[in-house]
Structures are given as structure tokens and as C-alpha cells.
Amino acid sequence: MGHGFTCDSGPNRVALVGYLEEALSNEELARVEQMLRTRSEWREALRDVTQDMDPGEHSVATIWRRHRLTCPTRERLGAYLLQALAPEETDYVRFHLDVIGCRWCQANLDDLSSTVETRPSSDMEHDRRRRRLFETSVGHLPRRNR
Ligand SMILES: [Zn+2]
């Protein structure tokens, strides 16, 4: 049986076993992960396939953990959005998103960015900056001669 399964043909056990055995190409892996995230029948099929295999080593939780091991945490992604990370951490997250192209983190980031934008904290930040500016300019006012 060759590769090239299609996404619309329902759960593909061969692809799922390949996924579990980490025998897929990156492209195929991304497609299977996409299916697992969006289709409950794929998740059920994965559970079936998993049960046919070694139950300890290949539990779904173990597999997901392994594949997401290098993913930055949600907190870190949030800090990345707010540009609050150290330069090397920023580089890592950017590499993870742009070069590795992790869809999981991209989805997380999209989710986070919609939350961040609606938060009023940017107003507070703006206020504080304005106040600081005000205080600074007061400090620089020419001293009045009496
Ligand atoms: Zn990731």
C-alpha cells in the first residue's frame, strides 16, 4: 500500500500506524495531526489503532506529549505576542513557528492574539506612558523667575 492517502476518505489506519511509529514524512504527519485535531472519527480510530499496539508505550497522551515536547508553553507564546521574551527565547519561538511551522502553536497563537487585542491593558499602558511623559515635561519646564 502506497502513500498519498486523502483527508476526505475517513480515518486511514495505515497513516495512523505510520503516525504512531513516526514513519511519516513531515507533510503527511502534518496532515494526520490536522485530521486528529479536527475530526473526532480520526481520534477514535487512533484510539483503536493504539489499543492494538503496545498500550503503555503508545498511549495517546504519550504520543502527543512527545510530539509537542519542543513546543513553547502557552504562557511563553503569550509573552512572545507581547514582545516580553528575552531575545533568544523570541528567536526560538519564531523558529518554531516560521521554520518548523508548528500548526499547534500557530493555532494557540491565533487564539491568544484575539484575547490580547481585546484586553484593556493596552489602555492602561498608554495612560501610564502619557503620565510619565507629563511628569517628564513638568520636570523640564523652565523655572519661573520670581
Ligand atoms: Zn509547537
Descriptive key words:
146 residues, mainly alpha, 2 domains, elongated, binds zinc ion
Order of helices and strands: HHHHHHHH
Tell me about the largest β-sheet: none
- Total helices: the number is 8
Ligand identities: zinc ion
What does the radius of gyration come to? Answer: 24 Å
Strand content: under 5%
Poorly predicted regions are none
Number of domains: 2
Overall pLDDT metric: 74
Structural class: mainly alpha
Helix content: 55-70%
Shape: elongated
Oligomer: single chain
**What's the end-to-end separation, in Å?**
95 Å
Tell me how many strands there are. 0
Describe, in plain words, how this protein is organized in 3D.
By secondary structure, the protein is mainly α. The chain has two domains: 1-69, no CATH class; 71-129, no CATH class. The chain is built from eight helices and no strands. Helix 1 crosses helix 3 (40-52). The radius of gyration is 24 Å and the shape is elongated. The mean pLDDT is 74. Zinc ion binds next to helix 7. It comes from Kolteria novifilia. This is Zinc-finger domain-containing protein.
